[in-house]
Amino acid sequence: MNARELVFASSAILTGLAGAALAANGIAVKRGEDATIYGSCVPSLVATNALAQAVDFLQVDLVVTLRGGQERTVELRSAYREGIARPIAPGASATLRQQLDLSVPLGAACSAIASRRVARTICDAGGRDCAAAVTVQP
Questions:
Q1: What integer pLDDT is reported at residue 55 of this predicted model?
Q2: Residue ranges in the chain modelled with pLDDT below 70
Q3: How do 27-31 and 134-137 pair as beta strands?
Q4: Looking at residue 83, what is its pLDDT?
Q5: Which of 120, 127, 134 lies closest to 51, judged by CA?
Q6: 39, HSE (Cβ side, Cα atoms, 13 Å)
Q7: DSSP line for 93-138
Q8: Which of 38, 120, 110 is nearest to 77 (CA)?
Q9: Which residues, at least 6 apart from 63, have a Cβ–Cβ distance to it below 8 Å?
């Protein structure tokens, strides 16, 4: 393999790994399992911390569109904002859940959800906003 072929092959590999590299240097959030509590769907997300620093708090505001066209926003959190600390250690994963005692239930079955999108993320580490990217696949 000559130098030009080596550069091309390396570029192709790096391009293919770009998404994985972003998640490897930040916080990757993917869809978790949905639960049904008292007839209402309660979605969840799973966050993996690939940082060298613990994440103190992570919140993802998920906008859920129901089959009838209504939209509802669900706040999924790693812990209570004010309360017992539950940091996400480096290399660890945590489930982001809706805190049903602080929010309004979705009021629909999981099968009624047509789509999901992210409206906002909040990430705190070491008393400041997280410096790394938070990538979410709802």
A1: 94
A2: 1-24, 81, 83-84
A3: parallel
A4: 64
A5: 134
A6: 1
A7: EEEEEE-TTTS----S-GGGEEEEEEEEEEEEETTEE-SS-EEEE-
A8: 120
A9: 71, 72, 73, 74, 116, 117, 118, 119
Provide the Cα torsion 33, 46, 92, 127; round to 10°. -140
Q: Shortest CA distance to 59 belongs to which of 30, 105, 98?
A: 98
- In the Cβ-directed half-sphere of 112, how many Cα atoms lie within 13 Å? 15
Instruction: Give backbone dihedrals phi and psi of 9, rounded to 5 degrees, phi first.
Output: -65, -40
Answer whether 10's CB lies under 8 Å from 18's CB: no
- Structure-block tokens of residue 32: 């978790």
CB atoms near residue 34 (< 10 Å): 14
Q: How far apart are CA 85 and CA 16, in angstroms?
A: 37
